[in-house]
Specification:
It contains nine helices and ten strands. The chain is of the alpha/beta class. The longest helix is centred in the last third of the chain and has 16 residues. It starts with a strand and ends with a helix.
Amino acid sequence: MSVLETRGVRKRFDDHEVLRGIDLDVAQHEVVVLIGASGSGKSTLLRTINLIERVDDGQIFLSGMDITDPRVDADRIRARIGVVFQHFNLFPHLNVLDNVTLAARRVHRMPKDEATARGRELLDTLGLGGKAREYPDRLSGGQQQRVAIVRAIMTDPELLLLDEITSALDPQLVGEVLDLVRELKGRGSTILMATHEMSFAREVADRVVFLKGGVLVEQGTPEQIFDDPQHPDTAEFLARVHS
């Protein structure tokens, strides 16, 4: 069963149609990577899936449930999805442990002792155990982004959305964040992510999706997309990136 299905999703801002009929499935435990130039619609698609933006037409299904139905409680849907954006959005007045457990306690009503134990376990597992009592301004950008990812997976979300999570980082910090995504893939997380890191997309994706101008142009395995693209727009984009 697909964790995520989008059917004919369209989104317009004023006179500009950013998404022009997107059909996409993401299966359980699958990692799907969105590639494309800036303005191709990658981030907007992720924002519609998390109901930050409402679609103008089409439907989005989360584990078979139509979440674009206006009667749906958007906050309950968001509680089932983990999201990490390019900017860390950590609370500066809370330490690392409180940052990663806050939503679990307040939104998911997880008991404080349980949330604390779960948060410490994840931080330890992912190499951040020694930072639990630090505040965000004492962490590197890569560490802050890793904390944001830990926060997103605290409650085992059905779907994890990652939106250009390395674009705000210095090049030397990118690797440690991508290592964490590899770890999540190994744990069986279902992930839809947008990235400009083509080598990483080739390595970690089960399927690569190329968007241009709000249209899903081509999708396939990393080998097919990167080594033998079928659409000239895909080939032109990749040639431009590699040059």
